[in-house]
Amino acid sequence: MDSLPDVLAAHDYPGRGVLWCTTGDGTALGAYFLTGRSPASQARTLRRTAQDTLVVAASDTREHDHLRHYVAARQSRQWLVFGNGEQVSTVADRLDAGRTPLLALDGLDYEPDPPIFTPRLTVVADGDGRAWFGAARRSAGGRTTTDRLTLHVSELPPGEAVLMTTYRSSGQHPATGAPFTETRTTAEDADALLDELWSALPPRLRIAAAVFTPGHLAGAGIRQAARVGD
Q: Which residue numbers delimit the Inosine monophosphate cyclohydrolase-like domain (predicted)?
């Protein structure tokens, strides 16, 4: 398996990404990151709320845009839910209502943002090192119906990780990211993972990244890009 920095360096524009891994100290961790190309995308922050959620929000006073501003991580009873859109709240509500992770992730659709049709990526994790990935993707063919992928990951040994990104690109035109990528991390703990992830993102495009532990979202480590004029 390639290292996490090598995997991310292979793409000029990874978009948004979700990661589940076990660091060298044996801790199971989740991570979420944002990169963006347009001024509207880059004018966002990732912040912690009084409700112990992580929210992607505008850093200025523009009106709410549900594709750019959303709850990115939420602790839902025994479940941690994180992802790249408003579906995070939907999945968390379903889990609170008693649905299993697989049923909570079902029925989601990709984003209505032609021509890219960004996948919706969601992770449900528990406190026992298990994670369920869900990806709602548009077909690479002519179909407009949603392809829904679910992946159950458990018992990752230290140093192993699973990554999903919205895009992959080696040029100016992003394409839908791979269904998932198994990769390796050299991080020994949460702080080192945040350093490794942040350093691997394209400096001119990175917006924010966070690393968190199930059950302890309030203690998430967050890194933000410094913009000119901030």
A: 13-210
27 by DSSP, 3-state: which? coil
Task: Look at the domain 4-224 and name its fold.
Answer: Glutamine Phosphoribosylpyrophosphate, subunit 1, domain 1 (3.60.20)
- The tens-digit pLDDT sequence of the chain (230 residues) is 999 999 999 888 999 999 999 999 999 999 999 999 888 888 889 999 877 799 998 765 455 556 568 999 999 889 999 999 999 999 999 999 999 999 999 999 999 988 889 999 999 999 999 999 999 999 988 889 999 999 999 999 999 999 999 998 766 778 899 999 999 999 999 999 999 999 999 999 999 999 999 999 999 999 999 764 44
Residue 94, CA distances (Å) to 12, 44, 218 in order: 35, 27, 22
Q: Vertex 206, ends 166 and 119: CA angle to 5°?
A: 10
| 28-35 β-sheet, strand order | 181-184, 160-165, 16-22, 28-35, 206-212, 221-224
Alpha-carbon distance of 131 to 124, in angstroms, equals 6
Cis peptide before 115 (omega within 30 of 0): yes
Q: Where are the beta strands (DSSP E) in the chain?
A: 16-22, 28-35, 44-48, 53-58, 70-76, 79-83, 120-125, 131-138, 146-153, 160-165, 167-168, 175-176, 181-184, 206-212, 221-224
Q: CA-CA distance, 165 to 177, in Å (whole number)?
A: 5
